[in-house]
Design brief:
With 76 residues, this protein is α+β, with helices and mostly antiparallel strands. The protein is built from three helices and three strands, in the order E-H-E-H-E-H. The chain has a single domain, classed as UreE, C-terminal domain (Alpha-Beta Plaits, 2-Layer Sandwich), CATH 3.30.70. InterPro entries: DUF2007, N-reg_PII-like_a/b.
Length: 76
Amino acid sequence: MKELVRTNDPVLVSAVVALLDAAGIEHLVLDQNMSVLEGSIGILPRRILVATPREKEARRLLGDAGLGKELRPDGP
């Protein structure tokens, strides 16, 4: 799994998830329920991950949607 996006913005998380769902790209949203521990103040970012074989496709999809600046740097 590769991390695509890390953000505190719930609207961005929803947009990315909708794009990935529409494209049929499986993904995970991690740390979604951490608000219970943080007291619902939104300081802990949510992470969106995709399977490594679909990472390039997902990056291209988000870039084409104007969300390229939100992408995490490519890693090893």
